[in-house]
C-alpha cells in the first residue's frame, strides 16, 4: 500500500524519518511529503495557499496506482481531508495523528503569531501543557532547530469541500494529548465542543486509538506511532 505522510505546521517530510521505517519494514511504500514553501527556512512562502498544499497531496495521489492511505498530523489532517474530498475513490483510509477532519469553511488556526508575513514556530509558552508532554528540552531544541515557518494562508484560508463521498472513507483518529474517550465525548450533539468535531461525526466508519503523549508523537514516540499507523492500515 502507498502511504502518504502529511506533516503539520512548521514541519516537512523529514518529520516522519523515525516513523516511516516501521511502515516500510512491513512492506508498505511511504511518501513523506514536503509541501510547497516548506523545503527550507529560506524558501519563498509569500504566495502559498491552503489550496496549494491540498493540490500537492492530490498530485501525489494521482501519480500513484491504486488505493492509497493518507496520514495527516495536526494541520496536515485538514489537508488530508481536503485531498479525500478531491479523490474520495482513491483513498482507502485516512489516519489523523492528534487531529481530525476540518469541515467546510473552517480554518486550521488563524490565531497564531505572524512575523514577517509568515508563521514561525511560536514560543513554547503559546502552547498548552498537554501539547508539550514528553517533549524534553533536547527534543524541543531539535524541533526548533529544524522548524520552518509556515505560510500564513495555509493556517488561515478557509477549507473548501464539495464531495460528500468523503464521509464514506474510513478514518482512524490517533488521540495523543487528549484521550479518545474525550474526543468521543465531544462528538455528542449536546457537548460544548461538538462544533469542533462536527465533520468527524459525519464520517460513517471511525476508529479511535490512544497513543498518550504530546502533540508531536513523531518526535516523542515515533516507533509507537509507526506501529499504531501500521495496525490501522493492516498488512501490505
Automatic annotation (TrEMBL):
| Name listed for the protein in its UniProt record | Pimeloyl-ACP methyl ester carboxylesterase
Q: Which InterPro entries match?
A: AB_hydrolase_1, AB_hydrolase_fold, Sec-Metab_Biosynth_Hydrolase
Where the record annotates domain AB hydrolase-1, the positions are 3-225
Known SUPFAM superfamilies for this protein?
alpha/beta-Hydrolases
Phylogenetic lineage:
Bacteria, Bacillati, Actinomycetota, Actinomycetes, Pseudonocardiales
One example of the protein's molecular function in GO is: catalytic activity
Species for this entry = Actinocrispum wychmicini
What domain of life does the UniProt record list for this protein's source?
Bacteria
Amino acid at each position: 500500500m502507498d502511504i502518504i505522510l502529511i506533516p503539520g505546521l512548521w514541519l516537512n517530510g523529514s518529520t516522519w524519518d523515525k516513523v516511516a521505517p516501521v511502515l516500510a519494514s512491513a512492506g508498505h511504500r511511504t511518501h513523506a511529503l514536503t509541501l510547497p514553501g516548506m523545503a527550507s527556512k529560506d524558501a519563498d512562502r509569500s504566495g502559498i495557499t491552503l489550496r496549494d498544499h491540498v493540490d500537492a497531496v492530490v498530485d501525489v495521489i494521482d501519480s500513484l496506482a491504486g488505493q492509497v492511505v493518507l496520514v495527516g498530523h495536526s494541520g496536515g489532517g485538514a489537508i488530508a481531508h481536503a485531498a479525500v474530498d478531491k479523490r474520495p475513490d482513491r483513498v482507502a483510509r485516512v489516519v489523523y495523528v492528534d487531529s481530525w477532519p476540518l469541515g467546510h469553511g473552517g480554518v486550521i488556526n488563524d490565531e497564531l503569531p505572524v512575523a514577517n508575513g509568515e508563521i514561525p514556530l511560536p514560543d513554547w509558552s503559546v502552547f498548552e501543557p498537554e501539547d508539550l508532554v514528553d517533549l524534553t528540552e533536547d527534543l524541543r531544541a531539535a524541533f526548533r532547530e529544524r522548524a520552518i515557518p509556515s505560510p500564513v494562508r495555509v493556517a488561515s484560508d478557509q477549507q473548501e469541500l464539495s464531495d460528500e463521498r468523503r464521509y464514506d472513507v474510513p478514518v482512524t483518529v490517533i488521540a495523543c494529548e487528549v484521550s479518545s474517550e474525550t474526543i468521543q465525548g465531544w462528538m455528542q450533539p449536546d457537548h460544548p465542543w461538538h462544533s469542533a468535531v462536527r465533520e468527524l461525526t459525519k464520517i460513517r466508519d471511525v476508529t479511535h486509538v490512544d497513543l498518550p503523549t504530546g502533540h508531536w508523537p513523531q518526535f516523542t514516540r515515533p516507533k509507537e506511532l509507526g506501529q499504531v499507523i501500521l495496525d490501522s492500515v493492516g498488512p501490505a
